[in-house]
Each structure stands twice: as C-alpha cells, then as structure tokens.
Automatic annotation (TrEMBL):
PANTHER family: CONSERVED PROTEIN (PTHR35908:SF1), HYPOTHETICAL FUSION PROTEIN (PTHR35908). It holds the Pfam family Glyoxalase_6. It comes from Kibdelosporangium aridum. This is Glyoxalase-like domain-containing protein. Coiled coil: none annotated. Residues 34-140 form the Glyoxalase-like domain. InterPro entries: Glyas_Bleomycin-R_OHBP_Dase, Glyoxalase_6. Gene3D superfamilies: 2,3-Dihydroxybiphenyl 1,2-Dioxygenase, domain 1.
Amino acid sequence: MTVRLWRPSPSERSEDNPKLSVVGSNVAAMHLKMITIDCAEPRDLATFWTAALGTEIASDYEGHFVMLAPWDPSGVALGLQKVPEELAGKNRVHIDLHTEDRMAEVDRLVGLGAAIVDEQKVPGLSWTVLADPAGNVFCVAGEEH
C-alpha cells in the first residue's frame, strides 16, 4: 500500500490560492512530526498498524508509548500512547489514507483486524471508514475511475 500525506509545495502556495499560502513567519518553525493515537495497549495496536502501513516499531517506551517508523517520504510517524480511559464514542480526529486500489487495501486491512464501519462516495472520490482493533476510526480513500 502506498500512503501519501499531502502538504503544499512552495510552488503550490500563492496569493491566488490563499488556502495554500503560508501566513506569518512562525509557520516555518514547526512541522508535523507525529500523529498519536491514545489506546489501552500500545504494543498490541502496534502489531496492527505496523502491518497496515508496512513499517516497523522505531521506539518502545516500556509499553507506555510506542512510536512507529515513518512509512512515507513526508517523515510523519505514528505514535501509540497508553491511556487509562476507554474510547468513548467516535474519535474527533482520524487518519485518512489514500491508495490506488481502495477495495484491495480494505480487504487487506480487514484481514489484519480492521472492521468496516461505513462506505462513502462523492463525485470523483470514494472512501471506506474502518476501525482498527481498538476501535479508532480511520479512512481509506481512492479516486473513482
């Protein structure tokens, strides 16, 4: 599976497209390093996510925090952090993954332990909402041909 995180390149940022413009000088001082998922058992969930993303564990802090190696040229990593409380309802932020063969990837992820939650479609784009083994929702999208 190829996973891509999109961020505008300098050539895509312009005054003509303010949504892609970088405003203020403090923006360059930060970058997205990691997306962290709260969970009860980071090591258990790492088994699913390393297989799903085709990566490996980069750091394991005694099972309290597990960081996966970046799987994409953007360098963004996935972290799994142990928390005492259970997931209550739908997570407010989720991961969107993109692939050329959405249905094949969905089948593969279900085989790894994900569950299909929903299917969505808008003109030109379809996505499947899944839940990882801990119930965290994420999406797999692909263009419609």
